[in-house]
Design a protein that fits this description.
Elements (H helix, E strand, L loop, with lengths): L11 H7 L2 H8 L4 H10 L15 E5 L5 E5 L5 E2 L1 H13 L8 H14 L1 H4 L6 H15 L5 E5 L4 H8 L5 H6 L2 E9 L9 E2 L7 E7 L5 E6 L10 E3 L15 E7 L2 H16 L9 E5 L9 H8 L2 E10 L4 H14 L3 E2 L10 H7 L2 H16 L19
Parallel strand pairs: 10-11, 10-12, 12-13
Antiparallel strand pairs: 1-2, 2-3, 4-5, 5-6, 5-7, 7-8, 8-9
Length: about 400
């Protein structure tokens, strides 16, 4: 790195005197500086350079202190050029660099100085460092995020939202759903909260368990966000609701397509069955896939089967649109899971919409009707599903 470089005192002021904030972002995020300047001038958004992103959700802006900030409006990253560098460098060095720690911040400054040593030290640029940055960006796109929550109390706005689907606070609590005040992503590297509670933009966290390294698997849900903006942030991709599927003697397990549908189905179903003595002995479990194009792993299939009685049945309950029907057909073809679909003449895509459009009594009666049909369906005619069948009995 050149004689005398290691003894050179590197400060934030020296870095910014010689290298623009745009240039640091450009190098550590592998974005053309012309693109960054255009975004600053126009306010337009781009797809994130540090995660897989199909919608433009990120932008650059100077704050009133002259700091250039990069913000991912989907909530994954929010920080200045030193936060950005720390994120990339942490992956290169396999450390969780905390820029609020003086020694860690010095490491970030030194790395920036060596990356731009043709400018800072007047020596030849090290192409190898740039290659490592590019490799790190690709690694980060496939990296698991560490999500931390600050939980708030449930309030009346939450009640209004969940009541529409027949879900109460008790059910949310025992299903590990939390109202979020703030959340952090990779807090050591990027210490700024990525979200602050707003009643017009609430965030709910689904706790999905822990991975083999003890990291919490979490999905964040923003119900009021536009579909062109990310409504979900997650660090997991597996079956959801596993902690509540805790028996090994289910008569039926119903697989649906989202945590919201699972919560609504399970809360309403349990409520309905409890009103009828003849159904008290029926054990129904609920689980959901993380998205509607999910392919069930063989280990997950076996885990579900082991949760059933000898005569138990796994049933899918997907949306009645094209995507939902394709997923239902996939489960029927690959695993012989029968399907329930809401007929399109009811003008409801899924069960939560059915709850929104109908009274509590109608929903409860429909659940009892479905349960009777399933129980009395000795030849599996009620649950039989064909790919071309768009109006499955409901």
């Amino acid at each position: 790195m050149g004689r005398g470089i290691n003894n050179f005192k590197i400060t934030k002021e020296i870095i910014l005197k010689n290298i623009s904030q745009e240039k640091i972002f450009s190098t550590y995020f592998n974005l053309p500086i012309e693109v960054i300047n255009r975004i600053i001038d126009t306010g337009e958004l781009i797809c994130s350079p540090i995660r897989t992103d199909i919608h433009p959700t990120c932008g650059f802006r100077y704050n009133n202190r002259g700091q250039l900030k990069f913000r991912d409006f989907s909530g994954y990253f929010w920080g200045d050029c030193f936060d950005a560098a720390a994120l990339i460098i942490s992956n290169i060095t396999n450390e969780n660099l905390n820029i609020n720690n003086k020694e860690d911040f010095r490491k970030v400054l030194r790395h920036i100085a060596y990356t731009f040593k043709d400018i800072i030290f007047g020596t030849e640029k090290d192409i190898y460092l740039i290659e490592k940055i590019h490799t790190s960006i690709n690694n980060i796109k496939n990296k698991k995020y560490h999500i931390e929550l600050v939980v708030r109390e449930w309030n009346n706005y939450d009640k209004i939202y969940w009541d529409k689907f027949g879900v109460n606070f008790h059910w949310l609590n025992i299903n590990f759903v939390y109202p979020v005040e703030q959340y952090y992503i990779d807090r050591n590297i990027n210490p700024e909260p990525k979200y602050y509670y707003n009643s017009k933009d609430p965030c709910y966290a689904y706790f999905l368990g822990k991975d083999k390294n003890g990291i919490d698997n979490i999905k964040l849900y923003f119900p009021y966000r536009d579909k062109n903006k990310t409504r979900f942030i997650t660090n997991a991709n597996h079956l959801e609701g596993i902690y509540n599927l805790n028996r090994n003697d289910y008569n039926y397990i119903i697989i649906t397509k989202s945590s919201k549908d699972r919560l609504s189905l399970s809360c309403n179903w349990m409520s309905a069955l409890s009103l009828y003595g003849e159904f008290n002995k029926i054990k129904v479990g609920f689980i959901n896939i993380p998205h509607e194009t999910y392919k069930l792993r063989s280990i997950e299939y076996q885990w579900l089967v082991n949760k059933l009685t000898d005569n138990g049945i796994i049933i899918t309950f997907m949306d009645n649109d094209r995507t939902g029907m394709r997923e239902a057909y996939y489960f029927r073809k690959e695993f012989n899971f029968p399907a329930i679909l809401i007929p399109k003449e009811l003008n409801c895509k899924d069960f939560t919409e059915f709850c929104e459009n109908n009274s509590f009594e109608i929903v409860q009666n429909k659940i009892i009707e479905i349960t009777n049909n399933i129980i009395n369906d000795e030849n599996n005619k009620y649950l039989k599903y064909k790919k071309e069948d768009n109006t499955k009995p409901f």
